[in-house]
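Deliverable D5.2: sample structural annotation.
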Amino acid sequence: MPDGSPTVQHILQDVFGFSQFRGPQEEIVQHVMDGKDAFVVLPTGGGKSLCYQLPALALPGTAIVVSPLIALMKNQVDVLRGTTDEPGMAHVWNSTLNKREMVVVRQDLQRGVTKLLYVAPESLTKEDNIAFLRSLNISFYAIDEAHCISEWGHDFRPEYRNLRAAMQEIQAKPVIALTATATPKVQIDILKTLGMEGATIFASSFNRPNLQYEIRPKVNVEREIVKLLKQHDGQSAIVYCLSRAKVEEISQQLQVNGIQAIPYHAGLDSNTRAKHQDLFLNEHVNVVVATIAFGMGIDKPDIRLVIHHDMPKSLESYYQETGRGGRDGGEGRCVAFYASKDMDKLDKFLSKKPVSEQEIGKQLLLDAQGYAETSLCRRQYLLHYFGEKYTEENCRACDNCLSPRTRVNVQEHIEWVLETVELGRKQFKALQVVNTLLGNLTAVLKTFNAPSLPTWGRGSAFSASYWQDLVRQAHVEGFLYKDIEAYGMLTLTEEGRTFLDRPQAVWMAEFKEPEDGESEASGGRTIALDPIMYAQLKELTRSLAKKHGLPPYALFSDHSLNEMATAFPCSEEELRSISGVGEHKARKFGAPLVAAIRDYVAVHQIDRPYDEVIKAVGSKNTQKVYIIQNMDRRVPLADIARSKQLSMGDLLGVLELIVQSGTKINLRYMLQEHFDEDSLDQVLDYFREDSEDGDIPQAVRDFDGVYSEEELRLVKLQFLSEVAS
């Protein structure tokens, strides 16, 4: 900043407490002070807010800051008010204000004491608000989280598309647009939509060298989250989930395991959200479990752990959410749990959207899935996505680099990929390239007569995952260009054509099939530490079941036995912590298993993983109590599922957990809609006497498809509730 601007230097030092600017901040601030448009792309934690807050305080008039989230506005206004004796210096203007508060805001604006007015895009575009703001002296506009403008951005907000017209109607003033996550495509979209094609672009590196990235298979995810948080005991952490229901479930899971955690999602009332946000910011609690809404613009510098229970829908979301870790330059650990089935679910949700949105959403999902499954350096992959080249061979801060695999020469296979793209004549996406190499005939490939291509089926000895990774490698190496406008169509670059003319060695980490898994809630797999212990428990369960005249699965599922053989519970209390057991089953059937485990541990001198014994959430949490109470009132399950924003399959999954934990439920009022009395007895007898493991698809086959999976799951639940709870 030039020496002739003491006012700005004074504000920087006395208001914000900084002795000097960071990175390009000084140049950006001067640019805004000079009345010029600016487009700022700085990583999360890079100091974007100061780029508009400082000139707003230095310039005459009021700066209008467009912000997408109430929580973001509140946090920034609270911080600004703490730097001055004038509370009217910064205001929020949105739908949360009552009439009296709105009068105060308008008076402060008319008095000229308000330097920053934070508004939601919906508020700025209202006609009566435009008329009022037109009478004020506006210094400039700041469009925060500008990626919301673009349909290719990870948090598209249609209201942002109307900002340009509203700003021109109020007063034509300079604009500064800011974002932490914008691919080259999104940057172009932002500039075009805001009419800022001539703006100066200030962009710094997307690399956050203090962040460590790790992807884990989604196996025993709740146990793993508890362990991670206990490793970071006393440090601030965020656990992100995609659904409100999962936020509530995980926060309760953490609480019963001695971790102070609070939920945050849009289903909570505004007062509760504000309270929980303040508890976290003021360090009264260290852990917040949240949907993606939490954290946008939250200036908490010392978050040391960011966990994703679910892989986000896009790499922009992932980058922004992980970027909330280590904003002070200190360590930030980012762990995401990945299961391909989660991405399949998200893909299915897209089917309800317009075709153009489906195509965009699918492309964003594929990029996120590619990141989770890649064998490349994750930092290299992430930076390449944002148009930045990372030249280091080993970042020493991602799981792929910290545990490097043997490197192999994939020159020939890269040639096959490029040849297939060339033969596709700009009509192949990555999926068509992979299917051509595998020899998988799809409708698209049939239309293109792909079986006649020279590379058809040439790579059938390898998996689809392998070829997908090779396509990503070719893209990162610069051999391929992915046309975003054409939803991911691939073409060869000049570098790719040169490679085909003069092939050379291409080294990459030896490919490893991506691990997959399912969370405990969905009855997924776990790995038993001791197969001998598992076999003993399996046989003991069979004996107990025979004694009680029940099928073995009615006592303890394979999943529960796997977990017992992993954690070795040596008391009834520890047995209750095993998922799918609960107090009733532990008391009724558990003693022989606990005795066998205790003897086995003593004989083999097993060092039990006490730290891995995670207490299960009892069935009497809020969601489960709500479900049970409504079932007692005979409310249709479809209505219960709708009220809790659950699919019917997810609701049945919750009911299965309730029954497994020993709580009785009565589904007969629902079953009467699907079965007459004789048919119901017949199916109940089937689960009691004929089904070896309670397998639902097998039951569908045994009944020749007369009953649906959903109907049979309901009967199985009723059976388990009656005989094993």
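Annotation notes: The longest strand covers residues 211-217. The radius of gyration is 29 Å.
The annotation will be released with the project's public dataset once the embargo ends.
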